[in-house]
Amino acid sequence: MNFIDYQDGRPIYEQIAENFKLQIYKGILQAGDQMPSVRSLAMELSTNPNTVQKAYTELERQGFIYTVKGRGNFVKDNASMMDNKKEEIITAVVELFHEAQDIGISVNELIIEIKKKIEPIDD
Amino acid sequence: MNFIDYQDGRPIYEQIAENFKLQIYKGILQAGDQMPSVRSLAMELSTNPNTVQKAYTELERQGFIYTVKGRGNFVKDNASMMDNKKEEIITAVVELFHEAQDIGISVNELIIEIKKKIEPIDD
Amino acid sequence: MNFIDYQDGRPIYEQIAENFKLQIYKGILQAGDQMPSVRSLAMELSTNPNTVQKAYTELERQGFIYTVKGRGNFVKDNASMMDNKKEEIITAVVELFHEAQDIGISVNELIIEIKKKIEPIDD
Amino acid sequence: MNFIDYQDGRPIYEQIAENFKLQIYKGILQAGDQMPSVRSLAMELSTNPNTVQKAYTELERQGFIYTVKGRGNFVKDNASMMDNKKEEIITAVVELFHEAQDIGISVNELIIEIKKKIEPIDD
DNA sequence: GTGGTCTAGACCACT
DNA sequence: GTGGTCTAGACCACG
Description:
4 copies of one chain form a homotetramer.
Chain A: H1 12-26, H2 38-44, H3 49-61, E1 65-68, E2 72-75, H4 81-102, H5 107-118
Antiparallel strand pairs in A: 1-2
Helix pairs in contact in A: 1-3, 2-3
The structure holds a DNA duplex.
């Protein structure tokens, strides 16, 4: 399974990191699980090990994984990760709404149209 | 007034373009208004004329302004620009909600919290 | 009547020249007719006399008008002008067809589709 | 092979872009093919890397190529590109015919003369 | 080595 | 004075 989209403008390392974040959020990868090794993932994705390494470094910096020298990379146990993501989404939406208000678009009007598009797939 | 943020990761020309888009959306700049000249704006922002030029080229490409050689750049008369922006915001919010659903966050729950933050400043 | 389109990318002097060429082709301006004076036309178009002058110079260079010092500019008597224009159009179309052939588009196919669009307004 | 024509009024970056578009249309460059690097092409054409860069940016904007940072530029897979070009040519020819009608030239007459010039090289 | 951005400075077309 | 293009050279992000 190669999820890299070269047509996507974003750098490859970012796509790799993003992919793992999603897997962690969705619970596919859980606390303590071992990440694929840098070399094996690089092979699997037909990309440069440096690129995978950069993705892992980024994930570690953002608190998603931790490294044990000589053993590998592991998913962190972070109970608040979900809340962080939730907060992140809320902040983003609120900012978009503010932006709309700034240029004179009614927020209520927006919500109505958004609901129309969301409901069919709501949980 | 210098709105360039060198800390911002985005290129300077993009920040300049963005800034003018906002001014147009907000109505500060209206159809037919003349934009500052490439050179004068470059001076004011202490940046290079080419950088301003690139921002203007981008704005023209996106249909916000038009150019008359030897005269200057002017704001375009584009009635549908507001609708475009609205559609853009709706799409962005819907995508964020989908993202939330993907990782198991209830959209209804999100909306409640968003409303709490929006209401105080709602129109 | 101001036919200048500032949104048009082309320089103003070119638009002015173009406009007069069309009037001559259509017979609205005929051989010997006097052109509007540089100053009066500049006033009428709210543009710079230099710009009008440049348009007239261009028209003279291309053989459409001639200048009598102190009297004004006049439309030339050029019987072959029509043929020139016709030849010009033919050359342009032939070149477009060659371009199509170069990239493997059937010319016959093109002609069929063009006729569909032309016929409703054919003479 | 240097296809730049300094006599041509059009800017160099436009000539470069045009040239690649033709190569893509003709199938010389196919989906996924790598473009020459900005620097190498600049050397080959004895021009400035920025000029090549501008051409590539333009090509990307128009949907002909995509960029992977640190890897290079690649030809996009766009099946509908041919149809676009065809439509473009048809529109241009139709406009020329309208122009002819405007000044009283018979379109049928034109077609006859065009066919005379086209047939010898028709497919 | 690859593309992306920016600066500095020049020349040209247009008004 | 206005924008459009080009050159030269630099620095950064990415792989």
